[in-house]
Amino acid sequence: MYRKFKTSGPIVKPQIRSFQTLPAGYMEIGESAAEGATRETWEEANAEVEILSPFAHLDIPLIGQTYIIFLAKLKKPHFSPGPESLECKLFAPEDIPFDSLSFSSMLVTLKLYIEDKKIGRPKFHYGIINKRLFLQTNVHI
Question: Which residues does the UniProt record annotate as the domain Nudix hydrolase (predicted)?
Answer without folding.
Answer: 1-114
